[in-house]
Amino acid sequence: MAKISVMGTGSWGTALAILLYNNGHQVMLWSAHPEKAVSLNETREDSGKLPGVKIPEGIVITSDDKAALTDVDVTVFASPSAYIRKVSRRLAPYVRQRQIIVNVAKGVEENTLMPVCDIIKEEIPQADVCVLSGPSHAEEVSRGLPTTCVVSARRKETAEYLQGLFMSPVFRVYTTPDMLGVELGGALKNVIALAAGTADGLGYGDNTKAALITRGIAEMTRLGVKMGAKLETFAGLSGIGDLIVTCASVHSRNRRAGYLMGKGYTMEQAMKEVQMVVEGVYSAKAAKALAEKYDVEMPIVMEVNKLLFENKPASEAVKDLMQREKQGEISWE
Ligand SMILES: NC(=O)C1=CN([C@@H]2O[C@H](COP(=O)(O)OP(=O)(O)OC[C@H]3O[C@@H](n4cnc5c(N)ncnc54)[C@H](O)[C@@H]3O)[C@@H](O)[C@H]2O)C=CC1
Ligand SMILES: O=C(CO)COP(=O)(O)O
């Protein structure tokens, strides 16, 4: 049994706290907001985000920074990527040397182009920062539906230790040394899922969805490999796996936001309607900037940026993607 704190009471933090508790660990769930910790303690359910999912009484819910980080074996950082830097800075004084921190957020910071693990490392240099990612909607994990993920760490032993903590009969975890690839897959798939949702909103079919997923993973892989990630990672759970689920699932916030934009909502209206974090909107500019920095062609990412930030009509974006200059699927050289 390990002592684990989960930092963040969004749907993913809550689902992972329940998973880890059911695996027999001692679990604390921390909220950045005292009032949220108080209300969750009373209701033992987040009826807005995970209706019908009970948070076991054995999980201690707190907003006390020090208590949540004292004598823990592992801490899981589950805040949305936009808050990770602020949360890391706030918690850094309570983090011991070589503390294992598992990042589960998916994003790239807009102004620094850093994936989430790098942000945590910068703010908490004494920590051993790892990542868990994959096709894993909280709504399904919290109900014990079979799910697979991948965990990556600097050292193989740490990755295997974490694999053991998270694994359960309904939650299968693989290990990988490719932290960068895992992180990029998780962040970039959200941008492509906005496009897939938009296509749904426009009333397009399964052919269109398959095209966006396939050409989307091609873009993600091109960028990732140029940045130093491994090609195989993009064919794995944190790459194509997560891209498929996010483009197709009824639970996906990114797909839903895209769907609403396909129906004519502005980005702001869509985000308001979805009510939970839509990471693709925050990562889209960073993905575009990375494509430019590494000189990689990412036409879907470019069109999503126009849709989000230049009010380009969705149907125009699709037309422009379809009528791009002719291409080979693989090189003739
Ligand atoms: N929900 C899911 O199924 C999955 C989510 N993720 C990732 O996990 C991360 C968290 O997502 P969710 O739990 O879904 O978020 P959510 O939309 O359910 O909840 C938002 C979270 O933001 C927190 N928050 C709001 N204002 C804050 C502030 N000023 N400072 C710090 N925290 C603040 C809230 O307390 C809450 O924990 C995201 O990066 C997401 O991509 C990854 C896998 C699955
Ligand atoms: O990352 C996720 C599933 O693996 C969650 O995706 P959404 O944020 O689109 O719901």
Automatic annotation (TrEMBL):
<dbReference type="GO" id="GO:0008654">
    <property type="term" value="P:phospholipid biosynthetic process"/>
</dbReference>
<feature type="binding site">
    <location>
        <position position="11"/>
    </location>
    <ligand>
        <name>NADPH</name>
    </ligand>
</feature>
<feature type="binding site">
    <location>
        <position position="253"/>
    </location>
    <ligand>
        <name>NADPH</name>
    </ligand>
</feature>
<keyword id="KW-1208">Phospholipid metabolism</keyword>
<keyword id="KW-0520">NAD</keyword>
<feature type="binding site">
    <location>
        <position position="134"/>
    </location>
    <ligand>
        <name>sn-glycerol 3-phosphate</name>
    </ligand>
</feature>
<keyword id="KW-0443">Lipid metabolism</keyword>
<feature type="binding site">
    <location>
        <position position="253"/>
    </location>
    <ligand>
        <name>sn-glycerol 3-phosphate</name>
    </ligand>
</feature>
<dbReference type="InterPro" id="IPR036291">
    <property type="entry name" value="NAD(P)-bd_dom_sf"/>
</dbReference>
<feature type="binding site">
    <location>
        <position position="106"/>
    </location>
    <ligand>
        <name>NADPH</name>
    </ligand>
</feature>
<feature type="binding site">
    <location>
        <position position="138"/>
    </location>
    <ligand>
        <name>NADPH</name>
    </ligand>
</feature>
<keyword id="KW-0963">Cytoplasm</keyword>
<feature type="domain" description="Glycerol-3-phosphate dehydrogenase NAD-dependent C-terminal">
    <location>
        <begin position="178"/>
        <end position="319"/>
    </location>
</feature>
<dbReference type="InterPro" id="IPR011128">
    <property type="entry name" value="G3P_DH_NAD-dep_N"/>
</dbReference>
<feature type="binding site">
    <location>
        <position position="106"/>
    </location>
    <ligand>
        <name>substrate</name>
    </ligand>
</feature>
<comment type="function">
    <text>Catalyzes the reduction of the glycolytic intermediate dihydroxyacetone phosphate (DHAP) to sn-glycerol 3-phosphate (G3P), the key precursor for phospholipid synthesis.</text>
</comment>
<comment type="similarity">
    <text>Belongs to the NAD-dependent glycerol-3-phosphate dehydrogenase family.</text>
</comment>
<dbReference type="GO" id="GO:0046167">
    <property type="term" value="P:glycerol-3-phosphate biosynthetic process"/>
</dbReference>
<dbReference type="GO" id="GO:0046168">
    <property type="term" value="P:glycerol-3-phosphate catabolic process"/>
</dbReference>
<feature type="binding site">
    <location>
        <position position="106"/>
    </location>
    <ligand>
        <name>sn-glycerol 3-phosphate</name>
    </ligand>
</feature>
<feature type="domain" description="Glycerol-3-phosphate dehydrogenase NAD-dependent N-terminal">
    <location>
        <begin position="3"/>
        <end position="158"/>
    </location>
</feature>
<dbReference type="GO" id="GO:0005975">
    <property type="term" value="P:carbohydrate metabolic process"/>
</dbReference>
<feature type="binding site">
    <location>
        <position position="277"/>
    </location>
    <ligand>
        <name>NADPH</name>
    </ligand>
</feature>
<dbReference type="InterPro" id="IPR013328">
    <property type="entry name" value="6PGD_dom2"/>
</dbReference>
<keyword id="KW-0594">Phospholipid biosynthesis</keyword>
<dbReference type="InterPro" id="IPR006168">
    <property type="entry name" value="G3P_DH_NAD-dep"/>
</dbReference>
<dbReference type="GO" id="GO:0047952">
    <property type="term" value="F:glycerol-3-phosphate dehydrogenase [NAD(P)+] activity"/>
</dbReference>
<feature type="binding site">
    <location>
        <position position="33"/>
    </location>
    <ligand>
        <name>NADPH</name>
    </ligand>
</feature>
<dbReference type="InterPro" id="IPR008927">
    <property type="entry name" value="6-PGluconate_DH-like_C_sf"/>
</dbReference>
<protein>
    <recommendedName>
        <fullName>Glycerol-3-phosphate dehydrogenase [NAD(P)+]</fullName>
        <ecNumber>1.1.1.94</ecNumber>
    </recommendedName>
</protein>
<keyword id="KW-0547">Nucleotide-binding</keyword>
<feature type="binding site">
    <location>
        <position position="138"/>
    </location>
    <ligand>
        <name>NAD(+)</name>
    </ligand>
</feature>
<dbReference type="InterPro" id="IPR006109">
    <property type="entry name" value="G3P_DH_NAD-dep_C"/>
</dbReference>
<feature type="binding site">
    <location>
        <position position="12"/>
    </location>
    <ligand>
        <name>NADPH</name>
    </ligand>
</feature>
<feature type="binding site">
    <location>
        <position position="279"/>
    </location>
    <ligand>
        <name>NADPH</name>
    </ligand>
</feature>
<feature type="binding site">
    <location>
        <position position="242"/>
    </location>
    <ligand>
        <name>sn-glycerol 3-phosphate</name>
    </ligand>
</feature>
<feature type="binding site">
    <location>
        <position position="254"/>
    </location>
    <ligand>
        <name>sn-glycerol 3-phosphate</name>
    </ligand>
</feature>
<comment type="pathway">
    <text>Membrane lipid metabolism; glycerophospholipid metabolism.</text>
</comment>
<dbReference type="GO" id="GO:0051287">
    <property type="term" value="F:NAD binding"/>
</dbReference>
<feature type="binding site">
    <location>
        <position position="189"/>
    </location>
    <ligand>
        <name>sn-glycerol 3-phosphate</name>
    </ligand>
</feature>
<feature type="binding site">
    <location>
        <position position="136"/>
    </location>
    <ligand>
        <name>sn-glycerol 3-phosphate</name>
    </ligand>
</feature>
<feature type="binding site">
    <location>
        <position position="252"/>
    </location>
    <ligand>
        <name>sn-glycerol 3-phosphate</name>
    </ligand>
</feature>
